Amino acid sequence: MTASNGRTVEAVPMTEEQKFFFDLRGWILLPAVLNDAEIEEMKAEAYGGAKNNFEGKLQETLDHPAIVGILAELLSEEPFVSEESYSFRCESSFITIRPPGWSKMERSDGGLPHVVRPPQQANAMRYQVAGKKIFAGLTRVVWELEEVVEGQGGTTFLSGSHKAHFNYGGPDPWRPNVEESPWEGSIRDAMDGYSCPAGSAVIFTESLVHAANDWTNPNNPRCAVFNCYNSLWAQWHRLNLAHETIETMPPKRQSLFRGTWQLGPGGNQAYSIDNRSL
């Protein structure tokens, strides 16, 4: 891939160990990916009012070499891999800043453990493995720009729930959260968290039950960039990203925002104003 400064940077492939633990748990942590200078510049943009990572220094997290090899492994098929374009798409991005004392009740869902769709239901976003190949449907990358201490407010995961086949106890099998489940307390108790230094990335499948938590770390806010990716074949979020913003990006980065269609091997490669996800 080509960095924003013109240097060619090799994408880091997903390791066999990472595949094992991603398949087992539904998430992996990449600690200390960004250097101090990158972190400070990105934090300045985030604390300065940036709402997403589509512009400025934050834009580099869209296709950072530490994640694109992993995303290709989770979301791509070999016939669609190309040097000129990415074999997956970016669907959304938002930035969250949570000061010490922030409550999960500020969220519309009250921080309920949730998924993109109920884990026991088959759908286009469902986590699958076939022929030793992972297909993770909707995949989220979280860039933590401040330190996260386990148990003090980071995202938590019900590890393994991306492969669940049974309802999690609620009255509505189609509800994508644990609202009204008598097992909610047990589910929360079973969820895993993580600690990481600033500049780390967490990658997880949206088929995994996950939850927001009260930010109780007294030493720093949470400042995190949440980016969502999908295959070339499907779309979940409505992007609403202006063409004028996309056209300022390097051509390969622009391909993250091309339209959702494919016809034959390598059919849809380049972004254009007439070929973009809306």
Structure notes:
This protein starts with 15 loop residues before the first helix and ends in a 24-residue tail after the last helix. The chain has a five-stranded antiparallel β-sheet. The protein has a two-stranded antiparallel ribbon with strand order 3-4. A two-stranded antiparallel sheet has the order 6-8. 17% of the residues lie in helices and 16% in strands. The protein contains six helices and nine strands, in the order αβααβββββαβββαα. The chain has helices spanning 16-25, 36-47, 65-75, 184-189, 243-246, 251-254; strands at residues 27-30, 89-98, 128-130, 133-135, 139-144, 156-157, 200-205, 210-211, 222-230. By secondary structure, it is α+β, with helices and mostly antiparallel strands.
Uncertain segments: none
Radius of gyration: 18 Å
Overall mean pLDDT: 92
β-strand number: 9
Number of helices: 6
Helix and strand element order: HEHHEEEEEHEEEHH
**Secondary structure: helix percent:** 10-25%
Q: Major sheet: size, sense and barrel closure?
A: 5 strands, antiparallel
Strand proportion, as a percent range, falls in: 15-25%
Structural class: alpha+beta
Which strand order do you get reading across the main beta sheet?
A: 1-7-5-9-2
Shape: globular
N-end to C-end Cα span:
25 Å
